[in-house]
Fold:
Amino acid sequence: MSLFSTSLLVPLLLCANLAFAQGTTVAVAANMKDAFTEIASAFKSTSKSDMRVVYGSSGNFTAQIMNGAPFNLFIAADEHFPMELYKNGKTIDEGVVYAVGKLALIAKNNSGIVLLDNKVELAKAITKANKVAIAKPELAPYGKAAVEFLKAEGLWDLAKDKLVYGDNIGVATTYVVTGAAEIGFTALSLAKSPEVTKETTSILLNPSLYEPIRQRMVLIKGAPQDAKDLYRFMQGAQARAILVKYGYAKP
Structure:
């Protein structure tokens, strides 16, 4: 099974089943998959926590939590969705920004497309591609950032009819890894993962052309002590070093 294919498995049915499980259940934005896997391993070495992790889009998780899904900690890909939960009384408090994400563009190795971060070369890449992968902007902050980038760079009209949408950034990345799309927008953290670098080339995109991707996490009301411990661990030096390793900036 693909590294990212499990991000498709987050329907409300799964969340309902988790309600009967013991321990801490964590909802994690798909862009964090590799980084959080390492963070979770480091956390478990200091704790006996029975932790279950589900990856998906921040928008879908927000809707699920609003409808009673039994998540204890929400590690999102932006600030908007966690703050919506806070405003609706679902969280302990406003939470904290734990990282700032970066947007990247990837191209399938056998596509013949060369990626360079300037408008002329990006226009050539989009023109040559049959499909351009992107996460759904209404659900995934990195998809929203990609739309902002394309519009700011004056490439939206060139790209819009070639866009194929994934429910989250992991799915959009998989489209390029598998060859379903020649190029695609993703998180730098995913572009740096071994599975993706094996199949694609990537470039970091100009962060001044999209709103900063400030990633916030929030504890859901009633969260057990294990969730609170993980929340604190995410703000510590060890977790932050891992985040920097995977291409995130400190908040």
